[in-house]
Amino acid sequence: MSWLERDARSGDEVADRRSILVMTDTAPAVELAGLTKTFGPVTAVDGLSLRIAPGEVVAFLGPNGAGKTTTVDMLLGLARPDAGRVRLFGGTPADAVRLGRVAAVMQTGGLLKDLTVGETVRMTAEFYGRTRPVAEVLDRAGIAPLADRLVGKCSGGQQQRLRFALALLPDPDLMVLDEPTTGMDVEGRRDFWQAIRADARTGRTVLFATHYLDEADAYADRIVLVRQGRVVADGTTAEIKNLAAGRVVRATLPGADQAVLAALPGVRAVEVRGDAVLVRTDDSDEVARYLLSRTAARDVEITSRNLEDAFLALTTDTPTTASPTAQTIGA
Amino acid sequence: MTVAAPSVPSAARADRRPPALGGFSTAVLAIEIRRVLRNRRTLIFILVMPAVFFLLFGLPQRGQELPNGRPVTAWIMISLAVYGAMVATTSAGAAVATERALGWSRQLRLTPLRPPAYVATKVATAMVLGLIAVLVEFAVGAAAGVRLPVQVWLLSGLTAWLGSLVFAAFGLFVGYLAPAENVMQFMGPILAILAMLGGLFVPLDVLPHALQQIAKFTPVYGVGQLARAPLTGAGLDWVALGNVAGWTVLFGLGAARLFRRDTTRV
Predict the structure, then answer these.
(1) Which of A99, A249, A319, B74: CA 20 to 30 A from A157?
(2) What is the CATH code for A245-328?
(3) ipTM (interface pTM)
(4) What whole-number distance in Å separates Cα of residue B226 and Cα of residue B157?
(5) Given an 8 Å threshold on Cβ–Cβ distance, is A80 in contact with B10?
(6) Beta-bridge partner residues of A236
(7) Crossing angle of helices B150-163 and B165-177, rounded to 10°
(8) CB distance from A82 to chain B under 8 Å?
(9) In chain A, what are the domain boundaries?
(10) Domain containing B55: what range?
(11) What's the fold here for domain A3-242?
(12) What whole-number distance in Å separates Cα of residue B184 and Cα of residue B44?
């Protein structure tokens, strides 16, 4: 196995490189080491390690049940890991919470229906040592006009923006968003991300869990793909997208000459599997033309791959059968 | 890309500090009280119902006198003040059940608010509501013609109010026991039965003898007896005092134990 394991391991190296780039001697914003959590017979998080440098905007991307929420809970100190360690800015999650260095927008719940939006924010502000002004966070979350509305009368999207306003109060160094747009309609999602983007204060570290590819693509600088409680890929959005770039030309060609195929323009990788040959290329026309005119190739198939494919290939439960190309191409 | 962005979060906000008093504040208390008073059902149970009970059951006794010559209406008024205060403090304490069910407690764990400050806020809210309940019942009584020496008003009112602390603890105990949003729906009838056994609705002498003996060990009995003592001139009733002390310790320890279990749950 090539790429998958290598990349999972290189997560730390990526973070290291970035720390050097930003020339900061401060501790990583997030450092998860060998994090494990089991619920009865189910291993929700399985030795997950991750390091996030201050200022990174990271998407924690994976299908439902990948262990994202459990990881976020442990990261925030809401759940205790069975094994492994969590460090936020070099300290415990409790330290970071106490000083208002971390704030989170959780998926559901956590609001009192019989308070108004304004009361909820004013009350929460009292729980911190120091906060941004209430009017400011209401405004930045785009809910200033709703200040006098009862929380119970707000839509799901409005409640989520209220949670975001609460998270803005301590002006946190790390903002954690757990599937923040689940259950929202398209418009709600757009408004919510607009509020997040408008906030993009320089230097704030953002970690958001999502199972929406387009959100990860649009808002993250770095994507961490998780499956079955493990990191299966970790890289910049461009790197992750690159996994999926180009097309794959597949043909039946006994005794294919790999070297010749690899030398064709645009070819990224060639793999021979029995009588079949798989070529990953930026120029599928060229490869197909060559195969059909110069060789005895038959059953030529051309398939394109996009981020969705990469995501599916990397996060499907049975990787050995579902994503052979993803694992071998680029090896 | 934010990779090259200047990253100085810790330097920029060196003024970070935890909240004073663990996050307990009068501003939160004020919002909490406003929140409770906004709830129509709560208002009916803690303010309107005891007042209506007085008008229905107290007023017909006008002119009747206790053995020491004080009006029977005052006996009923003080009993109902205790009842109003106990319902108020129980429901304020039991509100933690609603907040746990809604996930608000979880949300609070993501803030620097210390759990003891949270409980202190709940108890303070309960006591403010209890005080309002006593004051409203006394105001209704006074308006309906109850006349008492100042020290009886003060001592009975203070005892009814402070005694309701038992029920704030009771409410918290139930609140941490039952993570149900509608906890007061089953607490209402339970409180009514306890009030009955505690002699708040009718004098205990009208109950069968065996029930009277049992009633002395129920949690409302002590507070009722002590609150009416300044009126009846009964003096210090050690059985009632023991009753209040016992139940306060029991509910207090129970609530504290469940509270610890809840906060160390992580």
Answers:
(1) A99
(2) 3.30.70
(3) 0.86
(4) 11
(5) no
(6) A222
(7) 20
(8) no
(9) 3-242, 245-328
(10) 21-263
(11) Rossmann fold (3.40.50)
(12) 13
Does residue B147 sit within a domain?
A: yes
**Of the partner residues A26, A78, A128, the one whose CB lies closest to the CB of residue B10:** A26
* Number of structural domains in chain B: 1
Q: Determine, for residues B112 and A127 on separate chains, whether the beta-carbon distance falls below 8 Å.
A: yes
- The answer as to whether B7 is a domain residue is no
Nearest Cα to Cα of residue A205 among A60, A40, A12: A60
- Say how many residues make up chain A: 331
Give the 3-state secondary structure of chain B: CCCCCCCCHHHHCCCCCCCHHHHCCHHHHHHHHHHHHHCHHHHHHHHHHHHHHHHHHHHHHCCCECCCCCEHHHHHHHHHHHHHHHHHHHHHHHHHHHHHHCCHHHHHCCCCCCHHHHHHHHHHHHHHHHHHHHHHHHHHHHHCCCCCCHHHHHHHHHHHHHHCHHHHHHHHHHHHHCCCCCHHHHHHHHHHHHHHHCCCCCCHHHCCHHHHHHHCCCCCHHHHHHHHHHHHCCCCCHHHHHHHHHHHHHHHHHHHHHHHHHHCCC
B12: in domain: no
Question: Residue B152 falls within a domain, yes or no?
Answer: yes
Which pLDDT tens digit goes with each residue over B116-138? 899 999 999 999 999 999 999 99
Q: Per-residue pLDDT for A19 more than 60? A: no
Residue in B2, B19, B106 nearest the CB of A55: B2
pLDDT by residue (tens digit) across B60-87?
A: 888 888 888 899 999 999 999 999 999 9
Q: Which residues of B touch A29 (CB under 8 A)?
A: 9
